[in-house]
Amino acid sequence: MTSVLVTRRLPTDVAALLRHLTGIDIDVETWPGAGLMPREKLLRKVAGRAAVITMLTDRVDAELLETAGPDLRIVANYAVGHDNIDLSACQQHAVVATNTPDVLTAATADATWALILAAGRRIVEGDAVQRAGTPWSWAPDFLLGREITGKTLGIVGFGRIGQAVARRAAGFEMTVLFHTASSNRARTVPGATATPLAELLARSDIITVHLPATAATHHFFGRQEFAAMKPGTLFVNTARGNIVDEGALSEALASGHLFAAGLDVFEHEPHVHRRLRELPNTVLTPHIASATSETRAAMAELACRNIAAVLNGQDPLTPIQS
Ligand code: GLV
Ligand code: GLV
């Protein structure tokens, strides 16, 4: 029987959906654990499968593909990011790799705005004051944040998510600058201006990262880039942690050069750089930018639709473009 492995419980009945989409009986095994599927279990369980739904925490490499064996036809990653997948190894093994773009764009853009507003307006510090029960009184200079409306927003990486962040900026009457390395997709968000990186860094009040994690974007933001930002800049990252040199970021925050940072992703997840945890001017969330019930269900459905297409001999809906 056609057999599918799912490395984490999903908010969808994968077996029922796959049977419905393919019309064949499919055996689905889901790792039942509360935590990550341990690597050795994954390697043991992947053998003989036709498809596997992987999380961004599962490394898909030559070892896994060889262990899976010749029946494996598709790896459906339950994420838009795919830095956990060795695409050339997939190609060598004639395995299709897919991701979940589009369905998580709005949730991730919304979460980016949540971080911009929370870090800019010191929402978490204010919440801590209230929870501590310490006496406070209204004062003209109490917990002053940064004005958001009317400021300049710099978006680095202008794929689907970067563009969705730009569209949301219209309500805040912002000047929107963007920088992108790739030019093969239409970049049309009214009012957003393509800007060389150096100029974007120098002009923006808020800088938000929406690059993919690749060898070329590793530590894209380092000491030099933070130094090139205006004093008082607000920095947000909902893309991938290793795009940012966390040591350099913590220095820029500790010195007061940056006003604050809102971060959903970290270089060594689930570990968070100690200084980032200790600084008062960081808002830190545990990689939850796509975490809404609607989006997580849509991601599961898209992963299943990709698998069904491949098992049915059709093209996948959202193959990863290398
Ligand atoms: C989450 O980080 C994703 O890439 O979907
Ligand atoms: C890339 O930026 C994406 O949103 O898929």
Automatic annotation (TrEMBL):
Belongs to the D-isomer specific 2-hydroxyacid dehydrogenase family. Signal peptide: none annotated. The keyword Protein biosynthesis does not apply. The keyword Zinc does not apply. Residues 4-320 form the D-isomer specific 2-hydroxyacid dehydrogenase catalytic domain. Pfam families: 2-Hacid_dh, 2-Hacid_dh_C. It comes from Phytohabitans aurantiacus. Keywords: NAD, Oxidoreductase. This is D-glycerate dehydrogenase. Residues 114-289 form the D-isomer specific 2-hydroxyacid dehydrogenase NAD-binding domain.
